Amino acid sequence: MILYHALWDGVFLFGWNIPWFHTNAAFVWQQVICCTFILLSGFCLCFSRRPVRHGLIVFGWGGMLSLVTLLIIPENRVLFGVLTLLGSCMVLVGLTARWLKKLPSLPCAIVCFILFCFTRNSAAGSWGLGAFSLSLPASWYKSWISTYLGFPMPGFFSTDYFPLIPWLFLFCLGFFLHGICQQKPALLRIFQQFPEPVLPWIGQHSLVIYLLHQPVIYLSVWGISSLFAT
Questions:
Q1: CA-based diameter of the chain, in Å?
Q2: Which residues have C-beta within 8 Å of that of residue 67, sequence separation ≥ 6?
Q3: How confident is the model at residue 105 (pLDDT cuts 50, 70, 90)?
Q4: How far apart are CA 228 and CA 230, in angstroms?
Q5: What 8-state DSSP symbol labels residue 151?
Q6: pLDDT higher for 195 or 168?
């Protein structure tokens, strides 16, 4: 994730000429990073003692990031970005966790995976898998609320767009994977290879890590660009 963000800053903010970054391979790389990050966030939710409170804080920082980018770099504005998504997911899943934990984890994980794949192209106007897809009504794509949900209104633009649909399903998949690991000793032993506080620490400090790595990367890329420019 750090390397990808460094290259993104270099290409889009400092004009680095890296043609490969605009290829399908780079897009796949970006999607793998996003999916892994969101999946782990759902998995680590179970380690949070106050997931709703944590989610509201993350959501607030997402709004702050949107405001800052709108004011400073509107051409690269971030609206409904990954922080807004994660904050929303933490609140929604945190509020319903006591009931979700009573459901069978494996079937729920499978359903979440299918729903994620099925709704993957919501922003592009369709649901389905491959040739088996259906077009969604244009009336669904007309407001800020629909954009937040996953149906962007005409003219909407964001350099970091992560709506609830389909990403909430991937977050829930991570949540249920934690339940599966608790029920399967063989899987649980894999995570026991880590020092005990590692995963809870990541879950509790993911916001700080995310917020700090961005300015550090920006300053590093700025320094590299300035060095080679001279």
A1: 62
A2: none
A3: very high
A4: 5
A5: -
A6: 168
- DSSP assignment letter at 194: S
Q: How far apart are alpha carbons 14 and 162 in whole angstroms?
A: 24
Are 110 and 191 a contacting pair, CB within 8 Å? Answer: no
Give residue 96's pLDDT band: very low, low, confident or very high (50, 70, 90): very high
Calpha distance 169→83 (Å, rounded): 16
- Is it true that the peptide bond before 19 is cis, omega within 30 degrees of 0? no
Q: Does residue 140 contact residue 151 with C-beta atoms inside 8 Å?
A: yes
Residues linked to residue 129 through DSSP beta bridges, in sequence order: 132
pTM: 0.85
Residue type, 12: F
Say how far residue 212 (Cα) sits from the centre of its chain. Answer: 17
Kindly state the average pLDDT of the residues 119-123: 95
